[in-house]
Amino acid sequence: MKAIAITKVRIATENEIIPDGTVFVKDGKIVSVENHSFDDLEDWKVIDGHGQLLIPGMIDVHIHGANGYDMMDGSSRSIEEVSRVCAQTGCTSFLATSVTSSIEDLLGMIQSVKQVEGNEPGAHIVGIHLEGPYLNHKKKGMQNERYLRHPDIEEMKAILDEADPLVQMVTLAPELPGGMEMIEFLKEKGIVVAIAHSDITYEQAKEAFSLGASHVTHCFNAMSPIHHRSPGLVVAAFEEQKVSLQAIVDYVHLHPAIVRMMYRMVGFKRMVLITDALQAMGLGDGEYQFGGHDVQVVNGVAQLKDGTLASSTVTMNEALRKTVECGVPLWEAIMMATQVPAAVLDLPEKGRISPGADADLVLLNDHFDVRFTMVDGRFI
């Protein structure tokens, strides 16, 4: 197979958008990035991008399902389907994300991920994100209260033994008994500790960050709102320069004005675009089962019967488009979906278009529709 030259494209590099350039790909890696186009290249398979936008493959650190498949169902087929749909929507790497469940269901999900990891049909699995079960029932959202419990290091050791080394992120509520000790334990393991589904105070959040928590899951959702006498988790996170924050930019979980405020307060280098998608992503309106609940999706909004938001249906390319529509400059919005999550997960060969990086690439048109996705130099 010939090496590939993708030419006549706008290229989102680590530092800028090149208005008309060429990316050379060989053996699954980017070998060169040029700031001009070529009409004829011998020994290269030439792809004409027709002036469209070439970005690094997007990285979703928080996704539960897609196209009717829930990754908690214990089936490797579900993991494969999420991998396929992610690639179709411009996401080339993702964290398979759990919900609060029994230990048996969680271990079943881990086994399914292990069966698929390394043989994905689309986007790469770069790890597992455990959302729960150590969450506060006061801010449970759609998490199943039946399985919520206090942090248990012995249980976590058993989970990590089963998943090793796939667990890359854990979302918990540090204010629960044993929560601060769990942060220290996970930090020593090199796992990203995120906070959400939490009623934590400002002061407690500061302590959690000092112990090693460094991320906020779906910021503003499933946590106390900002109050002028009780600033809470969000304000504490805004003040911590080493803390990154997830944003579900679907115009449902966050008002566009809140997206703009987050951007002004913390800058693009600390914002991570996510989908938090359930299996309705790619299918649309209807009735679904998620996390042990009946979920109804109407006009793209997923809710429990009581009106509680239950994940989202947004895709990564849609989230990118909506972020730009909110007023975030294009290049910076792209970094929120690529370079920043790569940095959070310590993936130096992903999330960037530069020599030596993995050839995970996505071509988008002016409407942010995906024209092609490349993973490790292969068109998906």
Tell me the radius of gyration.
Answer: 20 Å
Characterize the biggest β-sheet.
8 strands, mixed
Q: Can you count the beta strands?
A: 21
Helix count, DSSP H or I runs of 4 or more residues: 10
Ranges with pLDDT <50 over ≥5 residues? none
- The coarse overall form would be globular
Structural class: alpha/beta
Residue share in helices? 25-40%
Average pLDDT, rounded to a whole number, is 96
Strand content: 25-35%
Question: Can you give a write-up of this model?
Answer:
The protein has 380 residues and is an alpha/beta fold. The chain contains ten helices and 21 strands. Strands 1, 2, 3, 4, 5, 19, 20 and 21 form an eight-stranded mixed beta sheet that branches. Strands 6-9-10-11-12-13-14-15 form an eight-stranded parallel beta sheet. A three-stranded antiparallel beta sheet has the order 16-17-18, with no helix packed on it. A hairpin with a 4-residue loop joins strand 1 and strand 2. The longest helix has 14 residues, at 103-116. It starts with a strand and ends with a strand.
Short note summarizing the structure:
The protein has 380 residues and is α/β, with parallel strands linked by helices. It has helices at residues 76-88, 103-116, 153-163, 179-188, 202-211, 232-239, 256-266, 316-325, 330-337, 339-344; strands at 3-12, 17-26, 29-34, 44-48, 53-56, 58-63, 65-66, 69-70, 91-97, 124-131, 167-172, 192-195, 215-216, 244-247, 271-273, 286-290, 293-298, 301-303, 361-364, 370-375, 378-379.
